[in-house]
Write a structure and sequence with these properties.
By secondary structure, the chain is α/β, with parallel strands linked by helices. It has 12 helices and 21 strands. A hairpin with a 2-residue loop joins strand 18 and strand 19. Helix 5 crosses helix 6 and helix 7 packs across helix 8. 44% of the residues are buried. The protein binds adenosine-5'-diphosphate (ADP) and zinc ion. The site of zinc ion has 6 residues, from loops.
Length: 435
């Protein structure tokens, strides 16, 4: 079944009753199977029986990325290896990677969650879907692959990279759907223009993009450049990969698969739960996973939750597009700045390309931000003066909108590395001890 009306449109009260039941099962399961959680729960004196409402999840301990690293590779695994059918891992650029084992049931649930995402985006079995997420340990490739296969689509597993071939295949096969990170979608659009392939006139109709923060402006840019609908996928390896949340035709917020994931927003400083509508750190508890359940996992992703009637009919809670990761938040002249906010402002400026990098440096005690962005060809053709004029215009726009002074450099055309997966937007040149 490509979507699950019973759960996706379930009255909230009933849904929360279901969540509570599954939460108790999960707590029981891990307190038997995972010493790490068993000890933590014992320390806090919390048992499944103490959970009488969804809000009682606040009694449970948090889990952070370091817990996964410290327990690498399988100390948080709640089943024997004979019951594991897949192990993914996330990149681990900053140390040991983290692992994501699945039982056969976990895999099936993941596929269902992803099918909901595809169906909601308008993907149907007639579609030819080109999957340009990286295949391998990264959950993006196989996560999308499984769901599209289950829906009966014709899947073209290009994986990421080899951009010219992506475009040739897209044209030759008549792909109607593209799966990729938003930054890679942009790379594909740009390369197609260089190859003189008019991507707008191809049969491509829908893209499902995720795995990195992207602003609404970027969504619009991709929709216009490719003449498609750009839909969203949200997820993380710790919970299954993509499939945690997805958007609907309203394109106004990301529905969370609440029968599988209990979402909370907490104040990242005090860790106190925050009410609906307030911005903070997103925290998830998995409700049905068996191989590696997660209790109150702190994602570091910043957003807010909204419970409102959605025109699509789904009752699942919605979250705003992720503003950014608390790791990537910069403090410039005392103002908190997410890269996606700068991205939004750059996309307002018609003389520049949506290709940018943010350099953070120290000047005395203060953090200083340099925005490097590429101009459109006309700007370079018009000479140095024009470059300076556009840079000044951007700096003025950022000052006006955010009240912060930044340096803006219009760097040479095509000098910013193009992304094939998750884009690297922030280059931190501050001494390590001063970050
Ligand atoms: P890694 O942590 O190594 O990047 P993951 O692929 O598990 O590995 O990344 C998950 C993270 O990617 C999320 O916590 C979030 O920060 C980001 N992410 C995923 N999907 C989206 C999305 N649609 N919008 C914004 N950020 C996203
Ligand atoms: Zn909706």
């Amino acid at each position: 079944m490509p979507w699950n009306k019973k759960f996706e449109c379930m009255p909230v009260e009933k849904l929360q009753k279901f969540q509570l039941e599954k939460l108790k099962e999960t707590v029981n399961w891990i307190s038997k199977k995972v010493p790490f959680y068993k000890n933590k729960l014992k320390e806090l004196g919390v048992k499944a029986d103490n959970l009488n409402s969804i809000e009682d999840s606040a009694k449970l301990p948090f889990t952070v990325k370091d817990d996964l690293r410290d327990n690498y590779p399988f100390d948080l695994c709640a089943v024997a290896m004979k019951d594991v059918v897949r192990i993914h891992a996330s990149s681990g650029t900053t140390g040991k990677p983290i692992t994501g084992p699945y039982t056969a049931d976990d895999l099936e649930q993941w596929t269902e969650c992803m099918c909901r995402n595809l169906y909601s985006a308008g993907v149907r079995r007639e579609d030819i879907v080109q999957n340009a997420y990286g295949y391998g340990l990264f959950t993006g490739g196989l996560g999308f692959h499984q769901a599209a296969t289950k829906m009966g689509c014709a899947v073209v597993p290009t994986s990421s990279g080899l951009t010219e071939r992506q475009i040739t295949l897209m044209k030759d096969f008549g792909s109607t759907v593209l799966f990729a990170t938003p930054s890679y979608a942009l790379t594909i659009a740009e390369r197609a223009e260089e190859m003189k392939v008019d991507i707008k006139s191809l049969p491509l109709r829908v893209g499902i993009f995720g795995a990195e923060p992207w602003s609404s402006g970027m969504r619009q840019e991709i929709e216009e450049r490719m003449n498609i609908k750009a839909m969203e996928a949200y997820g993380l390896t710790e919970l299954c990969g993509p499939g945690v949340g997805f958007d609907c035709e309203a394109q106004d917020g990301i529905h969370i698969n609440e029968d599988h994931f209990l979402a909370e927003i907490v104040d990242p400083g005090t860790l106190e739960p925050l009410p609906l509508g307030e911005q903070g750190e997103l925290v998830f508890t998995s409700l049905q996973r068996r191989a590696m359940p997660m209790i109150r996992y702190r994602t570091k992703d910043i957003t807010r939750l909204r419970r409102e009637r959605c025109p699509c009919g789904r009752t699942f809670v919605k979250m705003d597009k992720i503003y950014g990761r608390s790791d990537d938040m910069l403090i410039i002249s005392g103002v908190n700045v997410f890269p996606s906010q700068i991205e939004s402002l750059l996309l307002d400026i018609e003389e520049v390309e949506p290709q940018y990098r943010l350099l953070v440096r120290k000047k005395g005690y203060l953090d200083q931000l340099t925005v490097q962005v590429e101009g459109k060809q006309e700007v370079y053709d018009a000479g140095k003066e024009k470059r300076l004029e556009v840079a000044a215009k951007i700096a003025g726009h950022i000052k006006g909108m955010m009240g912060i002074g930044v340096e803006v450099e219009l760097v040479d055309a095509k000098s910013i590395a193009r992304s094939e997966g998750k884009a690297l937007r922030v280059v931190d040149e501050r001494p390590k001890q001063l970050r």
